[in-house]
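Wed. Picked up where I left off yesterday with Chitinase. The coffee machine is broken again, so keeping this brief.
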Amino acid sequence: MRHRRSLRSLLTAAVTAVATAGLTALGGGAAHAATPLPAHVFAPYFESWTGESPAALSAQSGAERLTMGFVATAAKGSCTAYWNGSPDTPISSASFGSDIKTIQAKGGDVIPSFGGYTADSTGTEIADSCSDAGQIAAAYEKVITTYDVARLDMDIEADSLDNTAAVDRRNKAIKLVQDWAAANGRTVQISYTLPTTTHGLTDSGLAVLQNAVDNGARVDVANIMTFDYYDNATHDMADDTRTAAQGLYDQIKPLHPDKTPAQLWAMVGIVEMPGVDDFGPAETFSPANATEVYNWALAKGIGTLSFWALQRDNGGCPGGPSADNCSSIPQNTWDFTHVFAPFTSGTTTPSDDFSVTASPAGSVAAGDQTTSTVHTAVTAGAAQKVDLAVSGAPAGVTASLSPSSVTAGGSATLTVSTTSAAAPGTYHLGVTGTTPSGSHTTAYDLTVTGGSGHPCTATPWAGGTVYTGGRQVAYKGHNWKAKWWTTGEEPGTTGEWGVWQDLGAC
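Structure written out below (tokens, as returned):
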């Protein structure tokens, strides 16, 4: 909704007084300048409700900056923000504080994100929930000062897009926070994350940005979610990203007539979804698509590259439906992160890199053999020599590769032979490709039927799966128990004092 300048000024002055009282009560009056984000940044989403460590996954993946979702209220009508709307994770140093400090100490940062689909569809997004712009501003400020961050993200979708009163409150609160930050010498950026069509924002999404202009609230980046189109169309997901972003550019240009083309493109942000999105296989974003989008984004000078979410960047469930913990396509762990990570500097193209996959999954009767094909592909830079190896075969099973080395883009034959003593069950073997620039491992599922061996009944270990303390797995004929959170650490290789406890043969 629009206000004449004089009326808006009166409303802003009144709300500012309320907000100032709220900020002071929270002890946030004194601010110092957090380190600004780079002009062009890669910051994938981190699902903060999983119990995983953002610092650990940042280090493992190479994603130095994370967008952490989500901050919301515990119940509709509340003005108190929590991580994921849970009172168990308040906005305090006890909730992710040490992880965020660890990330920042290594030169990275986090972008706390308010909202998300669940909050936006249940009335617990803070501007939907709280009717006081001053208290909303105080909640934003508390997150900024508690974690010393330079950007907040507003993930607005579902019912929140149509709540015009909340849209207006949110932007008024953003303006209050920006005024507070300016008065205290602190840089605070604001990004909006919004659903899109293949040709730009819907009218409701554009209205959010128009209302920000009306309220004098600066939006530094408008992230479009280039997935979940649900239009039953044929999709080239990389091309759809380009057309959606061009549509956004055309939409924000009239809102900011004084900005140059380079400044407008810097306001554009892209959020992809690795692999199969919620609609299904017709909307599949591949590592090759990621390379296309990376090169295009670098050339255009867009502001932010992201994807939903870091925990999906693995091939732990190829062929399955869309999931929060895997991409549903054959891929190496961190394939998408490795393509997008160099974007933060904005000065280099991705270094030489490759992918490795194995298909189809094997099924063999004990005493027989089966074959599958190992595929490699160039995902960035030039083709390299890839040395191949197989690990994880249980007793009574041997695996070999021919040839054992290929040039990225080539294939090899994986032959699995079994004896009658092999235990029946499904096993997760690992096929690893190694080059001078690094290595990637893909899971190969082998099902053995018959056989006289005693099967392990625990879930087979998988390199891309996250295990919490107490979880048991089967691996190489033994049961193992995780002592604490782990992922990617092979049972039997961590030593007596390592994460995996050997429970004995099975």
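Quick read: The first strand starts at residue 41 and ends at 42.
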